[in-house]
Design goal:
alpha+beta, 3-stranded antiparallel β-sheet, about 90 residues, about 45% helix
Length: about 90
């Protein structure tokens, strides 16, 4: 299933701020995660990398910097499942 928009638009639409934290809806598993502002920043950077077709490079940079913050690798790969949205033939 392709979505009508890409990872950055998903973050904008499905990661609202709640009293200084963010509620992220996983686009693959449809579960929610309460995230810090720093965690959301990492996911926003991942979303930008996905849309720029450089997610693999981003993942290598994360590993070179010491690895993923706890729990974020799974969520970043869920965003990668969205692809680039409309540019990839979304429905």
């Amino acid at each position: 299933m392709r979505f009508r928009y890409g990872p950055r638009a998903w973050m904008d639409a499905h990661c609202p701020s709640l009293d200084g934290q963010f509620l992220f809806l996983d686009p693959v598993w449809w579960d929610t995660h309460l995230l810090s502002e720093g965690a959301v920043q990492v996911l926003r950077e991942a979303a930008s990398a996905i849309e720029a077709s450089r997610f693999d490079e981003f993942v290598r940079e994360i590993h070179a910097a010491g690895g993923w913050p706890p729990g974020l690798e799974h969520l970043a790969h869920s965003l990668a499942g969205l692809g680039r949205g409309r540019d990839e033939g979304a429905v």
